[in-house]
Write a structure and sequence with these properties.
Layout (H helix, E strand, L loop, with lengths): L19 H20 L4 H8 L3 H8 L7 H10 L4 H5 L8 H8 L2 H4 L9 H10 L1 H17 L4 H15 L5 H13 L10 H12 L2 E3 L14 E4 L4 E4 L5 H16 L17 H18 L2 H12 L6 H10 L4 H15 L5 E9 L4 E9 L20 H14 L7 E9 L5 E9 L8 E9 L2 H6 L9 E5 L19 H17 L3
């Protein structure tokens, strides 16, 4: 997510690794040579004598590091008692088919391996050394992806989330770029940048034509907030989006242009993810937009004042959002940037829940865990999330108010959540908002922080007796809490474990 793309933070393969196809060819060739050598029960020494090549050179061939020139290829083929054509057109047994499919696909090319300090050549060596085990592992991953409906795009977003977590979701170079831009346009002293100002910058500085209600004639994009038409430099805006949503979209467009981000989708949300760079580009532009719209220094000062109160003040919390004209998502994203960096509050998580009232179904669609994986998280198993979390409580309250015909805006709350069976307790800020006109879902956002002495020293209202305390768990199916009034499903996984334990205990006691 680095603007300068320093070597330690690159999200894409450098030029020295871009020849992935040739590397894959070397790996496949090496695997085939190894297969033939082992089938003929030849040692490296035997093959070296027969081919006139050194043992070390043959070893590098099998590891995918070398590919023989035509004359050596012919000598190697003769030593293995096959034709040169057979050696070049490798035919693998079924056991190696998954490895072959992986290497011939674009999957390895898309993995941001260097982000995590992993060299592609090392991955190749692992595959070459243990192709059967790697093949079994790949088959397992494929099967898991089918069972859990995982897609390539999920991997890309997962990799993005992992990088955000490793950096505590703070990127100084983007912060600096947003501040520099803000100062250059005399925006740094504004609490809330008017939408008209942002639109003017896009029109005057970057030649945009912004079309209000521009998506009216494109019903296919009814769930999108904007669409960019590059040839005409037109930004088509969705009818009905509010000023906060519009400001964020305009801020993103400024980010794309100011940072020179080219690999982008034309829609406000990613419809189809073909490569990792597109995911990175949109995340970078979104970060820039939030940093531009919510000034880091002023926001930090405001949070210091809010945290110094001895009592929780929900109106003051909502007032901060109003001060910066920030949508809840933007406000919570800024909290995840600022709390770790400026307050040293790193043991936190962020969750966004979607609630479909027509089916009473809750789903986590965004999450971030800093310092470690915290207890509440998406498990992808369609279980019933614990209704004791305020994230779900507020969504139920929101639906009840809507069903009685009351006008409902964004509602907020705070809760101390003790996680069952552990010492962990979280202070959680939650807001819930009604669905967008184009969506059937209501949305809640929660920021949870581990309660310890460090948090108490920084947030004075942690022990406010007015804050509700609840014992919580992850899902009903995994929860042994008895007499739970909020339970919405039987603890079938707990009971299955208990039956298994009983059987194991009986086995141990058999004479």
């Amino acid at each position: 997510m680095s603007v300068t793309k320093s070597p330690s933070e690159k999200w894409y393969f450098s030029a020295s690794i871009m020849s992935v196809k040739s590397l894959n060819n070397r790996i496949l060739f090496g695997l085939f040579v190894k297969q033939l050598r082992q089938e003929k029960k030849l040692s490296f020494s035997d093959l070296a004598k027969a081919s006139g090549m050194s043992v070390s050179y043959l070893n590098e061939i099998e590891k995918g590091k070398k590919y023989p020139k035509p004359e050596k290829l012919a000598a190697l083929a003769k030593a293995l008692n096959v034709t040169s054509l057979t050696l070049e057109n490798q035919i693998f047994p079924q056991s190696l088919a998954p490895v072959k499919e992986l290497l011939e696909s674009n999957f390895l090319n898309e993995l941001p391996l260097d982000l995590f300090g992993i060299e592609l050549s090392k991955v190749a060596e692992i595959i070459a050394n243990s192709p059967l085990r790697v093949g079994a592992f790949i088959n397992t991953l494929v099967e898991l992806s089918r069972n859990y409906a995982l897609r390539e795009s999920h991997f890309f977003f997962g990799a993005l989330r992992a990088y955000q977590e490793l950096n505590y979701n703070y990127f100084g170079d983007i912060e600096e770029a947003a501040l520099t831009f803000s100062k250059g346009h005399q925006l740094e002293n504004l609490d809330s940048i008017p939408v008209e100002t942002l639109a003017g910058i896009l029109e005057d500085d970057f030649g945009y034509d912004i079309v209000e209600n521009g998506l009216d004639k494109y019903p296919e994009f009814k769930n999108m907030r904007s669409l960019f038409v590059p040839k005409q430099k037109k930004l088509l805006l969705q009818r009905g989006i509010n000023r906060m949503q519009k400001a964020f979209q305009l801020g993103k467009e400024i980010g794309f242009n100011h940072l020179g981000l080219k690999d982008r989708s034309l829609t406000s949300s990613l419809l189809k993810v073909d490569n990792f760079d597109t995911v990175l580009t949109h995340a970078t532009a979104a970060y820039f937009s939030v940093a531009l719209l919510i000034n880091l220094k002023r926001f930090t000062n405001d949070l210091e004042g809010f945290f110094s109160n001895e009592e929780w003040d929900g109106q003051a919390f909502m007032g901060l959002m109003k001060k910066y004209s920030a949508a809840p998502e933007m406000f919570f994203q800024r909290l995840t940037n600022v709390l770790p960096k400026k307050f040293g509050i790193k043991k936190l998580f962020f969750l966004r829940f979607l609630h479909d009232p027509s089916q009473d179904r809750f789903e986590i669609d965004k999450e971030l865990h800093l310092h470690r994986k915290h207890h509440p998280h998406s498990n992808g198993l369609r279980e019933h999330y614990c209704r004791r979390w305020m994230a779900l409580t507020l969504l139920n309250e929101l639906h009840e108010m809507e069903s009685t015909g009351k006008y409902v805006g964004t509602i907020a709350g705070v809760q101390r959540s003790k996680f069952f069976g552990t010492e962990d307790e979280y202070l959680g800020f939650t807001v819930a908002r009604p669905a967008n006109p184009q969506s059937p879902y209501n949305v809640s956002l929660t920021l949870g922080m581990i309660i310890d002495e460090d948090l108490r020293s920084k947030i004075k209202f942690v022990d406010d007796p007015a804050i509700q305390v609840k014992e919580v768990n992850t899902t009903c199916e995994r929860c042994p809490i008895e007499d739970c009034a909020e339970r919405s499903a039987e603890p079938k996984i707990i009971r299955k474990r208990e039956r298994r334990k009983a059987m194991l205990k009986r086995l141990q006691n058999l004479e």
